[in-house]
Here is the input.
Amino acid sequence: MLPYLPATPEDENVILDQLGLKTADEVFHEIPQSIRLKKGLNLEGSKSELEVEGILKALSEQNLHAGNTPMFLGAGMYDHYIPSTVRYATGRSEFYTAYTPYQPEISQGTLQVIFEYQSMICAITGMDVSNASLYDGASAAAEAALLASSSTRRNQIIVSETVHPDTGRVLSTYMEQQGIELITVPMKDGITDLEVMNELVSKKTAAILIQTPNFLGYMEQVEELEKLIHQNKGLLILSVDPISLGLFKSPGEWGADIAIGDGQSLGNYMSFGGPALGFMACTKSLMRKMPGRIVGQTQDTDGRRGFVSTLQTREQHIRREKATSNICSNQALNALAASVYLTTMGKQGLQEVARQCYDKAHYAAETITKSDKYRLAYNQPFFKEFPVISSVSPENIQSTLLKNGIIGGYALERNYPMLKNCILYCVTEKRSKEEIDGLKQILEGMT
Amino acid sequence: MREYNKLIFECSKEGRKAYKLPESDIPSYELPASLARLEAAELPEVSEVDVIRHYANLSQKNYAVDLGIYPLGSCTMKYNPKINEEAARIPGFAQVHPLQPVETAQGALQLMSELEDMLCEITGMSAFSLQPSAGAQGEALGLMIIKAYHQSRGGSKRNKIIVPDSAHGTNPASAAMIGMDVVEVRSNKDGGVDVDALKEILNDEIAGLMLTNPSTLGLFEKNILEIADAVHDAGGLLYYDGANTNAIMGITRPGDMGFDVIHLNLHKTFSTPHGGGGPGSGPVGVAGHLEDFLPVPVITVKKNKYDLDYDRPLSVGKVKGFYGNFGVLVRAYAYILTMGAEGLKRVSEMSVLNANYMMDRLKEFYELPYDQTCMHEFVISHLKNNPADINTKQIAKRLLDFGVHPPTTYFPLIVHEAMMIEPTETESLESMEEFISAMIQIAKEAVENPEIIQTAPHNTSIKLLDEVSAARKPVVKWKGYKKDE
Amino acid sequence: MTILNELLYSKEHEWVKVEGNLARLGITDHAQSELGDVVYLELPEVDDEFSADDAIGVVESVKAASDLYTPVSGKVVEVNEELPDNPEAINEDPYGSWMIVLEMDDDSELKNLLSPEEYKEFCEQEG
Here is the structure.
C-alpha cells in the first residue's frame, strides 16, 4: 500500500463489483495488445520517505548554494533577501494546492492575491495594466514583441545586444517561428549604440526592446531611445529589474508602452534557474491584446466586492488558434511570493533594498579597482552589477575564489567575445562589508 | 467564520513596517538625478501582523485539493505530497544559482539527468528536454521541433498541423504561435479520430497530427496504430499531448504507440502542485531522429561528470531562460522515487477504476455521450430528467453549496453542456461518495425544486459574480492610487 | 428570433441593409442571443478594404469571441464609433446597432446572401 493511494483491496473489490470486472487489468481492454507493456517499467521500486530524503540529501549536498556560500554572481538571477512571511504564505496549502480560479466563488483567495499583485506591479512599473504573470523574463520579452507586432501591424522588432543572452535567444526562437524580422543593435561602451539605433529605426519597426539596467549592469539612455521610437510611431518595450525600481525612474515615467522583466528578485528562490516570474504591464490601450490571465474587480448579486478572471475570451481555451497567446498555466505561486514580498517590504523597504544594493555595489566597484590589476570595463552609471576587466584570467579568478569559499561573478567572454578577461560582479543587499572587503583582498592577491 | 474583505492597500498606514534589514555600514553613493525615480512606488505600509493576517484570511477563501475532492477533468488534481514540498525547499536545491560553475552544481544536474532517464522509461521516448515551463510551452517547443525536422529534409512546404475537434485550446493556439496553420479533423461517433476523415486530409503540406491519448473525452484512441501509420506514410510526424498520461503509466507508452514528440505536464501526472495556476513544467520527449533539434543547453554526462552542452547546431533555440522549472522538477523526481515502477502502474490502474466507478454510478441520472469504458476521466452532459432545463453552469454553482469543487464545464467543445470528471487515484471511495451524493441530490432537486439550483450558489461566502461588467469596464488594479486612471 | 423583412442575411448571422452602392452591417438577433451579453467590440478602420468572407472584426461576450465577417467585398466608409463604448446596445437592439458601412465593389455579390425567409429556415436547420 502506498500512502497516496487510499484504495484498499476491499475498496478495489467494491469498485470491480460495481463494474462487473474481475481484475483491474480488464479496464484496459481497449488498448491493443501489441502496445501493452509486458513487463514492469524499468525503474526502481517504491521508496519510503526516509529513503527518498536520503537520496535528495546526497544530491543537494553536492551543490554549493547561497545559504552556505556568499556569491557575487548575478547575470539574470539574484541572491536577495526573502522574508519569512513569503515562505509562510507560499506554504499554505489553500494557495498552493488550489487550481486556476475558474470557479471564482471558491477562489477569492487566489483571485484577490493576483489582483493585488497586478496592482503592485503597476505601482512599481508606473504602468496602467498588468497581467497575472508569464513564465519568466525571457518569454515575457517574446510575448511583448509579439504583442507589439500585432498591435502596430508591423513586422520588425529591434533589440539591443545588451539584453540578457537568454532573452535574446528566446526572442529569436519565437520571432523566427512567426516570420518576424529581428534586428540586433550592437553595444557601444557598454550600452546600446544610439547612432546605429537611429539609423535602423523606421516606420517598419513595431518596437524596440531595451533592458535597463542591461545585462552588463549599466543604465541605458532611455530618454533618447523613447523619443526615437515614438517619433516613428513604434512601441517602447522596457525590460527592467524590479528591485531597481526602488531607486530608478520607472518605465511609466520613461513613457514606455510595455514594461517586462523577471520577478525572481521579488521573494523567489533562484532554484537553479526556475520557476521564475515573468511580469508584463502596459498602457491602457494595449490591455485587451495582452497575453495571459487578467483578474478584474466586480461585485456579486448581493453587491459584495469580489474578483474574477476577466477578458478570458482572448485566451486559448476560447479563442484557440486566434488567441493572444497559447499560455495556459502561469506562475501564480511565484506571483504570490512577489506579492507577499512587496507587501512585506512595502513602500520604504523596496527603496531601502535598492539603496543598499546600489551603495554596496558601488563600494565594491570602487574598492576592487583601487588595485591596478582591475578596472571597470566602461564608465556608465550602474545599479547592482558591474563588469571588471583584469590582467588575470577569469578561470584563475573563479577557481581561487571557490577555494576561498566564494562564488565569483560571471565571465562575459562566452556571450561578448570582445570582453576578454572580463567578469560581471553582482552585489546585493545580502553582501556584507566584510564579504566585499574579503573579495577585494583575494582579488588583490592574485597574479 | 471571520468575514474578511480588505485589500492589503486598505490596511496600509504611513510609517508601518513589516521588515528590518541589517544597518548598512557602507558609505552612501550619489545617484545621477536624471535617472532617479520621480515618485516612490505606492506600495502598502503594513506591519508583519497585518501581512500574516491578510494572507491567512485570504487563504480561507480558497478551495483546494488539501480540503477535498477536486474532480476537474483534464487537470489531474491529485494529492500533492508534502515530502515533495520539503524537497524543493532544501537549500542545496532552492538556493543554487543556475550560472554557478558546473562543478559546484553537480547534484542539481544529476537530478535533472536522472529525471530525464525516468521520463524516457515511462514514456518510451529516447531523450527529453526539461526546459518548457508548462504544457503549452512544451507544445510550442514540440511543434518547433517538428517544423525544424521537416525543414532539414527539404519539406518546408509542410506548414499545416492537424488537430482533432476535441482538442484542448492550447493545441491550436500553440500551432498559431509558431506560425503554423491548423486543420481540424472530426471525431467519430465513438469519440475517437475519424480515421477516414484523417486520411482524406493527409498530404504533403501536413507537418503532423497532434493527439491526446486517451483523448480529451477520456477515451482511449483505439485506432492509434492505424493513425500512426497513416500519418507516417504521408510523411508527417505524430505529436502526443501528454495531459492524460495519468491513465497509462506502466500500461502502455506513447513511444510504443508511434509518437515522435511528446510533452508531459508534471503539474498533472507527476503530482507537482497547481499553485493557483502555476508554476507548471512541460518537459518534451523525442524519438531518436529528433534529438538533434532539442533546445539548448542539453545535459550531458561523461564519467559521472555532468555538464551543459550549448554546441548543438540543429537545435531549435531556446523557449525559456536557463534550464527549466527546477523547483518543479525536484518535486516530480521525488514523486517518481516514492512511487517506483509498481506504484506508477497502480496510479494508472486506480485512476481508471475510480473514473469508471463514478461514471457507472452517475449514468442513471446524467446523459453519457459516450457509453463505453472510459480511461481516467469521463464526460457527461445534461441531466436525464430535466423538466426545468437546468444547464451545466447552474449544476456547477449548486455543487459549490455541497462543499465540493465542480468538474470541468463546457469542455470539450464537441459535447453540448459538457461536464468532464476526473477523480484521480488519490480519492478514496468515501470522498468519491461525497461527490456522487451531491450530484445525485442535484438530479433530484432538478425535478422537485429546480429553483434552488437556478439561484445557486447559496452557501458560499460570495454569491454569483458579475462577469459581464468585469469584462465591459475592466477594473484590473486598485483604484486608490494617487496617479489618475 | 426576430428577423426583419427589409434586410438581407449571411450564414455568419450578419444582417445587411443595402443603401444604393453601400452596405450597412450588423449582427442578427440570433447571433446576439447565442453570444450572450456583449462585452467588447473590435471594428476595422475607415478606408480598410476587404474581400467577401474576410474577417473584419470581433464581437466578444464573457464566454465567446466571434469573428465578424463581411459577406461582400468593399471599402469601409463609416464605422459606428459609439458602439464599442456601449456594447449592451447590440443585445438590446441588434438591428438598430449597425457596425460598419461598406462601399461595395461588386453588388452582384448580394445574390449570395439569404432572404429573410431563407435565413429563417437556415436558423431553424442549424438549431
